[in-house]
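Q&A FORM
Asked by: J.P.
Topic: structure of HotDog ACOT-type domain-containing protein

PROVIDED:
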Amino acid sequence: MSPKHPSESLTILTDLVLPSETNPLNNLFGGELLARMDRAASIAARRHSRRITVTASVNHVAFNRSIPLGSVVTVEAKVSRAFNSSMEIFLDVWLEDRESGIRTKANEAIYTFVAVNETGNPVSVPPIVPETELEKERYDAALRRKQLSLVLAGKMKPHDATELKALFI
Ligand SMILES: CC(C)(COP(=O)(O)OP(=O)(O)OC[C@H]1O[C@@H](n2cnc3c(N)ncnc32)[C@H](O)[C@@H]1OP(=O)(O)O)[C@@H](O)C(=O)NCCC(=O)NCCS
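REPLIED BY: S.T.
REPLY: Here is the structure written out as tokens.
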């Protein structure tokens, strides 16, 4: 399979925060943001692999800023690294100021998706070649994050997580 670039999977979802999507403080409900990010990540994974893709894990979510009712929220998703059948998707969430139009970063998250065939069995995806400095940074750290996720899920023994161990030595 010929390699692809992260930009080929770029997915941008922009939407308003409506009253039915808020918590008692009138800020966006966390689960609603998780769902929006899952949808964007799913499309990015599909654009990279051109296969059916399923969410395997949510590796990291940081709700750094609350998102008030009426906000315009943009979720940007891009495949940061492709392994064999799995892909790490990095998500950046932006808020747009109503008057100035200036965007500020509100949250970020990292999801893992797996490409599968019609019977749900994992299938290979194309390799990925990062281009920008940020894409290269995210690509380099993705293997550590994969190993951490597998260790926490009980799918990898800690002593096999060589990339992860290297952080502490
Ligand atoms: C995700 C799923 C396909 C993985 O199947 P599996 O039998 O564990 O398959 P494997 O062990 O071969 O793993 C497949 C890939 O997923 C990766 N993976 C599995 N669990 C993972 C986790 N918790 N974190 C990171 N990667 C994970 C594996 O490392 C492997 O990656 P690679 O092929 O790139 O090396 C399977 O668990 C599944 O279908 N889960 C349900 C998905 C779903 O319905 N999601 C929606 C939530 S309701």
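FOLLOW-UP: The beta strands are 11-16, 52-62, 72-82, 86-96, 103-116.
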